[in-house]
What we know:
By secondary structure, the protein is an alpha/beta fold. Helix content is about 40%, strand content about 20%. It has a single domain (about 25-220), classed as 3-Layer(aba) Sandwich (Rossmann fold).
Amino acid sequence: MRIQVELNEKLQDYVADVSLRESDLQRELRSVTAKLPLHLMQISPEQGQFLGVLLRAIGAKRTVEVGVFTGYSLLSTALALPDDGRVVALDISEEWSAMALDYCKRAGVGHKVDLRVGDARASLAALLEQEGEAGSYDFVFIDADKENYYSYYESALELLRPGGLVAVDNVLWHGAVVDESAQDSETRALREFNAELHYDERVDLSVIPFADGLTFAVKR
Ligand SMILES: C[S@@+](CC[C@H](N)C(=O)[O-])C[C@H]1O[C@@H](n2cnc3c(N)ncnc32)[C@H](O)[C@@H]1O
């Protein structure tokens, strides 16, 4: 038997009531982002807090974020890193990532953010090939275009030290991964991505049905 509590709105509100510890700036960033047409791309505050707890638990100092948008996950990450920690933040949008950096600066954690605007595949290749950063990161968060997830994952595995962790958002894609009629490129890419990771012996794996589905893989 599988025990899985059904998350209705009342229970979700309760979880927020008894656990959320959002800063004023995080709350402001959420309300400003809520006015944008693509606001649903933002991670939830519970996810942001979880990210922070996770980073503290593993003692992360050097991290990479693929997919910044207006910066909720980036701000949560930068707040959780030690003062000499660093998050390399990758996004293709100049406008959104500028907003993200601005919030990090206002929160006093801008010095931890190394923002790189452009196609994340090229930025990751630069980190590996030009900057020689392979094997030197503790954590990578993947939350950008779904079609390139596998490529981001491969780069993440190269960037991580053994024992480093990669977290991947949206792997259940609103449940579309089990809907046979959903054949768009994002859903197909996520199905293939999930199937590839299942037997990838380079990592220890866990898929958690939290938010829109999160995969965790620890590099062996
Ligand atoms: C789901 S949003 C990220 C949400 C963010 N993590 C948050 O907490 O608000 C996806 C982001 O990926 C970016 N993106 C899409 N394609 C990209 C690419 N090829 N390279 C870099 N960033 C990309 C988009 O500009 C967008 O900001």
